[in-house]
Amino acid sequence: MNKGHSTDAMNLREDGYVPIRDVEDAQMGMFDKPLPCFGCGIGWFFFLLGFVFPLMWYFSTILYFGKYYNKDPRERSGLAACAIAAITFTVAAVITFLVYLL
Hints:
The protein is mainly α.
């Protein structure tokens, strides 16, 4: 049997030869397309936008806990950063509010 050729009857084409495909080729197709929001992903875009509109951090935290990153695992780090920023902002706002009252 020659290297690089498949003898599987289902894979035969008209010319009789079928190149053997790599296992990683099928998985790479899912991540070939660029991320939305200028290529940085929804999570990182909302993280940067959150410094102007902090409510974006809370919205992306909902996306993070709703497992939005299952659609594209590349979104996980940005959404997690937004969740951390939302918690930090909330703690800072509560401390500021308590200091202001006392």
